[in-house]
Design goal:
alpha+beta, Beta Polymerase, domain 2, about 45% helix, globular, 6 strands
């Protein structure tokens, strides 16, 4: 029978990682759990929580410590995401990540996926619209395959907005969730509009 101690350490690591993601702006689950484990002097890799366990603690953290401000914070981020999605409507934008899931903390980034025939089309649109950006790449899992995709980072009034550019056909392919082996959740423009109307 498993000793309760590793399970207790696992939960403490999940709670500490969730706190850092909520309050310090850490975005990466793997980095958050490793840092939390170091702080708690937990060297056993079997004590590391899953990303889904950390997200569960993240929701709990918001309920306990930010119950009043979290709904307003999410509404602001989602409203800003909606404005960007409307602007980029021609690229079939989809909201994803913590802002969609409702776990976005104080310094969370807003993730929007774009689907375009050409990266240049998106870049030219941003340039012609006078929208400043920085370019980077991010790794995504498509089934057993990993691909690095271009990301445009914009600075919005409530934080960074990341626009990842996928090929048009990628919308038909399931993207692996960072939380589990299921598909990553994405919401198209009408769904985000409905979500905001419900929030209001």
């Amino acid at each position: 029978m498993t000793s309760p101690r590793p399970q207790q350490i696992r939960q403490l690591i999940a709670q500490q990682a969730a706190r850092m993601m909520a309050e310090e702006g850490i975005q990466d689950y793997a980095y958050a759990k490793r840092k939390a484990a170091r702080q708690l002097s937990a060297s056993d890799v079997h004590c590391l929580p899953t990303n889904a366990e950390i997200e569960q603690e993240l929701r709990l953290h918001h309920e306990i410590f930010r119950s009043e401000e979290q709904p307003q914070h999410l509404h602001r981020l989602r409203s800003e995401a909606l404005a960007v999605m409307r602007l980029l409507d021609r690229f079939n934008p989809h909201l994803t990540g913590p802002v969609l899931a409702g776990t976005a903390g104080r310094y969370a980034e807003t993730d929007i996926h774009l689907f375009a025939d050409s990266l240049k089309d998106v870049e030219l649109f941003l340039l012609n619209s006078g929208i400043p950006y920085e370019m980077d790449e991010k790794s995504y899992r498509f089934g057993s395959e990993r691909r690095r995709l271009p990301v445009f980072s914009l600075e919005g009034p409530h934080g960074t907005i990341r626009l990842t550019v996928f090929a048009t056909d990628d919308l038909r392919t399931s993207l692996k969730s960072p939380l589990n082996d299921g598909a990553q959740q994405r919401a198209a423009l009408p769904s985000v509009e409905a979500m905001l109307a419900e929030d209001a």
